[in-house]
Design a protein that fits this description.
Layout: E1 7-10, E2 16-24, H1 32-35, E3 37-46, E4 49-58, H2 59-75, E5 77-83, E6 89-96, E7 100-109, E8 114-123, H3 127-140
Antiparallel strand pairs: 1-2, 2-3, 3-4, 5-6, 6-7, 7-8
Length: about 150
């Protein structure tokens, strides 16, 4: 998993969430609806809590979040979110207009019904790395087909 492309939101040596797509859930499908499901490891470290959950996300959800981050980087204020179809993770990002961003996250174990809510923060200097990470993910797992 170390060489797999991943998205880090927050600080690697501090509070963060890391999404690492591992494989396509249905590699035999090239259509939009089945071909874009990804098996993703979601690692969280927030305060004294931490852990990893296996989740199913879609390639276009990560691609859409790239657009959110790009817009926030250009404007520094406003909000946007990573929201997933099956609600495994939600990360709502809010910019203060001065380059600081707060992220309200909720991680859900959809199979068991458990939820973990936590807050993260980053500044504008971290967004280019996140955009590059999302580009690397898109290179490894491009969106297939059209809706």
């Amino acid at each position: 998993m170390d060489d797999a492309p991943s998205l880090l939101i927050g600080l690697a040596d501090g509070d963060h969430v890391r999404l690492t797509p591992l494989r396509r859930k249905h590699p035999e499908h090239s259509d939009y609806w089945d071909g874009n499901w990804l098996e993703v490891a979601i690692e969280v470290r927030a305060g004294g809590m931490g852990g990893t959950v296996a989740a199913d996300l879609r390639a276009e959800e990560l691609a859409r979040f790239r657009g959110v981050l790009q817009r926030l980087y250009e404007k520094l204020d406003g909000s946007g979110a990573l929201e997933t179809m099956e609600h495994w993770i939600t990360a709502r990002v809010v910019g203060d207009g001065r380059g600081h961003f707060a992220v309200g996250c909720e991680l859900r174990d959809v199979l068991k019904g458990s939820r973990l809510g936590f807050e993260l923060a980053f500044d504008q200097t971290e967004i280019p790395a996140m955009l590059a990470q999302l580009d690397r993910i898109a290179g490894a797992f491009p969106v297939r087909g059209r809706p």
